[in-house]
Design goal:
Blueprint: E1 6-11, H1 16-24, H2 29-37, E2 38-41, E3 44-45, H3 52-61, H4 65-68, E4 74-75, E5 85-86, H5 98-103, E6 109-112, E7 125-128, E8 137-139, E9 145-147, E10 153-158, E11 177-181, E12 184-188, E13 205-211, E14 214-218, E15 224-227, E16 236-240, E17 247-258, E18 261-270, H6 279-282, H7 306-330, E19 335-340, H8 342-355, H9 362-389, E20 396-400, E21 405-406, E22 410-411, H10 414-420, E23 439-441, E24 446-449, H11 464-478, E25 488-493, E26 510-514, E27 518-519, E28 532-533, E29 536-537, E30 542-545, E31 553-555, E32 559-560, H12 564-572
Parallel strand pairs: 1-19, 1-20, 2-31, 3-32, 6-7, 6-19, 22-27
Antiparallel strand pairs: 2-30, 4-5, 8-9, 10-18, 11-12, 12-13, 13-14, 14-15, 16-17, 17-18, 20-30, 21-29, 23-24, 24-26, 25-26, 28-29
Length: 592
């Protein structure tokens, strides 16, 4: 196989300082290899708001949110301001992606799981997934989002191996268990929501026998699967029955012995990748191991069940490695784009503790640090696969995160500031009463005026400007911490937000940014791209290597996230993405 010209590995939420520290300590050897062979950018600035779909859209297109149209995680496209659509759907992206620009020069790509990357727009792009960065959540050819996976299942038993409704160390609801006779049970399989059953799945179940040595599972055909406590089974492959054609099904099981009983966990996936991938990729996904996507996160923060989450993320990375092994036997692309989202999950669980924004005992801190190190080591293994098996010395490699992370001292309800000023009214259940509300915060720094012309709002056009003035005043007066200090970095009219890359018809009437340590959406979103404090930084991780890139370099000059796509395109000799307004970093291009 000829090595690709470019490999992009996206690591959602990866924190530069932690990766560098662990690489220098010898815990991340492949990160260290890349730092030695290329350039680590220590002042790499994401766009605002610092949220996944906004940041990845800018990185892919080299265009600011105002230009590419992805200005928040949920977009206002007209009608009443309560109506928002998901920004993860790439059909809403209004700019050309880097690999689509390369396709105009005849270069092909494999794009795997990158948020907002699908659906594909070129026959030279072989797309796997493309909405949330998860193989179970996909953009369909018509642009809709498809949820096709069967969620993880968990069943509880006490020390006597009798079914129970709860275990002390587990905070999730179990799937149903029916005892058929002594020691023999039927395990039911639940789905999360009605949306998960668009394919009219028929009910399935497993037979379970309990014995002194453990548990034994049987499927409907009598296939036997032994469960040894603490050890994962090999993947089980079968078919999921529907009212039409059966769909491929994959399970992997583990039984854990806890203090007060046993937990049986099943990762499950029902793949219909042929619905979202080119035909030549579809057959690859049958008989592949399942990649966990849902409920393992609930087990992450609990030392008793942490193994499920950690192992499942290893399985997730292994799934993608196996996918690339198969894909690269079929195609020899010039560009590879892939993604791992689990680091940001760790951020949301543990960054405040790791960064010191929340107090921890020494034992808690050791546990948190171990989890954090483990997920970076999983990413390091993923990077190592490409370094050792795919790239060569002429391959440009870009390892990048969409944003960093800041430990939150205090989460704030932005709408409470508007409520206090009489601009917003809520029902007792805290839902907004739109019939009495003049303006509302709709997430990711965007506040919209409830105009009459917007699907029946209450504010006449003649009061639009004065309402905006009231909103900004309310924010300035009320967004203050316990010490009275303001944590409002800025509040500006949406039409004036072009100086930091926002604006356009999807933008809020008022846009805000918050300082480090405060948030309305936890560890990232409203905080400004340069927010830095004692609990972390919103700056992203970015490491670039390849021909002409300075080696063993720590680049401390400011770099905006929209700069790398045009820089890489220039290095490759392909057109810049059509709407790109980033700069070309000449120091990375001119040297041969």
């Amino acid at each position: 196989m000829k090595a690709p010209e470019l490999i992009i590995i996206g690591l959602d939420g990866a924190v530069d300082s932690f990766a560098a520290k662990e690489a220098q300590a010898g815990n991340l050897p492949n990160f260290a290899r890349l730092m030695k062979r290329g350039c680590r950018m220590t002042d790499f600035r994401p766009v605002h708001p610092t949220i996944t779909p906004v940041c990845w859209s800018a990185l892919q297109t080299g265009a600011t949110p105002e230009i590419n149209g992805i200005v928040a995680d949920k977009l206002y496209l007209g009608g009443h301001i309560s109506n928002l659509v998901s920004a993860y759907n790439g059909t809403h992206l209004k700019a050309e992606r880097l690999w689509e620009a390369a396709a105009r020069a005849g270069k092909s790509s494999i794009v795997d799981s990158m948020p907002v990357s699908g659906p594909r727009r070129s026959e030279l792009v072989w797309q796997m997934e493309g909405t949330s960065g998860n193989p179970g959540r996909m953009i369909m050819p018509d642009g809709s989002t498809e949820y096709v996976d069967i969620p993880q299942q968990v069943w509880f038993f006490d020390k006597n191996k009798k079914p129970v409704d709860k275990l002390k160390d587990v905070k999730v609801l179990p799937s149903p268990v029916t005892e058929e006779k002594d020691g023999v049970f039927t395990l039911g399989v639940l789905q999360d929501s009605a949306d998960a059953n668009r394919h009219n799945f028929l009910p399935i179940s497993w037979k379970l026998e309990a014995s002194e040595n453990g548990f034994t599972l049987y499927d409907s055909k009598g296939v036997r699967i032994s469960l040894v406590p603490g050890k994962w089974t090999e993947p089980y492959h079968g078919e999921f029955p529907t009212t039409a054609e059966p769909l491929p099904l994959a399970f992997r099981f583990i039984a854990l012995e806890l203090e007060d009983g046993f937990l049986i966990f099943a990762s499950a996936a029902c793949f219909v990748h042929d619905r979202v991938c080119p035909d030549e990729f579809a057959e690859m996904f049958y008989n592949m191991p399942p990649t966990p996507v849902h409920r393992e996160y609930f087990f992450f923060a609990n030392p008793a069940t942490n193994k499920i989450a950690m192992d499942s993320w290893d399985f997730h990375v292994q799934w993608h490695i196996e996918m690339f092994k198969r894909a690269l036997e079929k195609k020899n692309p010039e560009i590879i784009v892939t993604y791992m989202g689990d680091i940001d999950t760790v951020n949301h669980f543990f960054w405040p503790e790791l960064a010191g924004a929340k107090e921890t005992t020494p034992e808690q801190y050791k546990f948190v640090e171990g989890c954090y190190r483990k997920i970076y080591q999983t990413a390091d293994r993923f990077i190592g696969y490409f370094l050792d098996n795919v790239a060569d010395e002429n391959t440009i490699i870009w390892i990048v995160s969409d944003h960093g992370s800041i430990g939150v001292k205090e989460e704030r309800d932005i709408n409470a500031a508007l409520e206090k000023a009489g601009l917003l009214v809520r029902f007792p259940d805290r839902q907004v009463d739109w019939s009495k509300t003049q303006a509302a915060y709709r997430g990711c720094g965007h506040i919209f005026v409830n105009l009459e012309e917007r699907g029946g709002g209450i504010v006449p056009a003649s009061e639009y400007e004065s309402t905006i003035d009231k909103v900004i005043t309310a924010l300035q007066d009320n967004l203050r911490g316990p010490d009275g200090e303001s944590y409002l970095a800025f509040a500006v009219r949406g039409r004036e937000a072009g100086f930091f890359g926002l604006g356009g018809e999807r933008c809020g009437d008022v846009v805000i940014g918050l300082t480090a340590g405060y948030a309305a959406m936890t560890v990232h979103a409203e905080q400004i791209p340069t927010a830095t404090g004692p609990y972390g930084s919103m700056r992203a991780l970015s490491m670039l290597s390849g021909p002409g890139v300075p080696e063993n370099c720590v680049w401390d000059k400011p770099v905006n996230s929209i700069d790398i796509a045009p820089t890489i395109c220039t290095k490759m000799g392909v057109p810049l993405p059509a709407q790109s307004n980033g700069r070309v970093i000449r120091e990375f291009v001119d040297k041969k």
